[in-house]
Amino acid sequence: MSNYNRGGYGSSQGQGFVQDSFGNDGAPPKKTYNHTLRPVTIKQVIEATQTQADGDFKIDGQDIGQITLIAVIRNLNHSATQNVYVVEDGSGVIDAKKFPSDHDDADEINSLIVGSYVRIVGTVKNFNQKQYIQVHAIRPISDMNEVTYHNLEVLYVHVSATRNKIGGASSSSGVYGQQHQLNNNSMQGVTSTDTHMRGAVDNDAVAQDISDFIYNHPGRTNGIGAPRQEIIVNFKHRLGDEQKVNELIAKLVDEGHLYNTEDDDHFNTTT
Predict the structure, then answer these.
(1) What is the pLDDT of residues 72-95, one digit of tens each?
(2) Architecture of domain 169-269
């Protein structure tokens, strides 16, 4: 992650706007630029909204400046004017376009092949009602832990941005809203080592126990997590049938407490 130091792009949590308070009277207002860097999925980019033609795109109701994502190259096309990479991350497929530069590393470009994982930093653009990414930087991924870390970042930022909308917490509670809820529920017959998800999902005991099961699963340490079938076997008797277990897993994923790892049938915890 150090190749794209956030100090150069601005924090993903900060607003990143530069205001000119010394403009001349009568002069047209200068355009302000959003310098934030937000981790995203392709699905979020595709569904990003824009209130005006030349305005910033919005994700989760927040203006975005630059975005970063990790994806697999599915197709590519090099030309004298631009390099186009068709990339996919499991949530969607999108074109990522980069203008060639004299500063490009030829060896690194040659390593960007179909089937390879890459990190992309760029901005969201729209042409003919279709979103694409204007690439500022692209590099291959050599450590798959970076993929897991990126997924955690995406979930963290998404949950932080939508907490008030989905959780009903007041705006004054800030990032402590969930911690307060955890403290209110974590002493109900549990020890300090297994309270990482207590009270986080509507106080549903089964949801909490599923989170604990995955958290303590041997597969968690290697990033693979727990298989769906193991979760079903261990909790089907408590919910009555397999479908209800799957629905509860989906709820935990939607609320940002679990995420998929190597495929749709393996899950890890975000904490």
Answers:
(1) 999 999 998 999 999 999 889 999
(2) Orthogonal Bundle (1.10)
Predicted structure pTM score: 0.52
49 or 29: whose pLDDT is higher? 49
CATH number of 2-140: 2.40.50.140
Give me the residue spans of the domains in the chain: 2-140, 169-269
CA angle 175, 147, 5 (to 5 degrees): 65
On whether the CB atoms of residues 216 and 231 are closer than 8 A, the answer is no
- Report d(CA 27, CA 32) in Å as an integer: 15
